[in-house]
Amino acid sequence: METLKMRILIQHVQGADIAYLYNREAFDLLIIDKHEYDNSQFVEVGTKIEYDGRKFEVKSVNLKLYPETYEMNHGKGINLYSPTEQADYNCQLGVFVDNLD
């Protein structure tokens, strides 16, 4: 049985990629309120996040399951939208955001 290996895509509702997150350290770069009772964080419609000095509101979220694992150790360039080293993935959580004024 294959383990789920997730990356998180943060994308603006107008289509611009904001970030690809492959690990907990990268997720911690998002400023998201933590719940007091267990220190957990939710990403859902209406969640307000801050990333790289910009503030956003989550407008939609989806989960995409790929038919195979994408291996990121192929040595073919870098992902400029990833603040940390890339990792293999076979599913993606898409988080679609709009600017907060």
What does this structure look like?
The chain has 101 residues and is mostly beta strands. It is built from one helix and five strands; from the N terminus they run ββαβββ. It has one helix at 24-27, and strands at residues 6-12, 17-21, 48-51, 54-70, 89-99. It has a five-stranded mixed β-sheet with strand order 2-1-5-4-3. The longest helix is centred in the N-terminal third of the chain and has 4 residues, at 24-27. The radius of gyration is 14 Å and the shape is globular. The model has no long low-confidence stretch (mean pLDDT 87).
Give structural attributes.
101 residues; mainly beta; 1 helix; 5 strands; globular
Beta-strand content estimate? 35-45%
Number of helices: 1
H/E series, N to C? EEHEEE
Question: What structural class results from the helix and strand content?
Answer: mainly beta
Name the shape in a single word. Answer: globular
Q: If strands are numbered along the chain, what order do they take across the biggest sheet?
A: 2-1-5-4-3
Low-confidence stretches: none
Provide the gyration radius in Å: 14 Å
Percent of residues in helices comes to under 10%
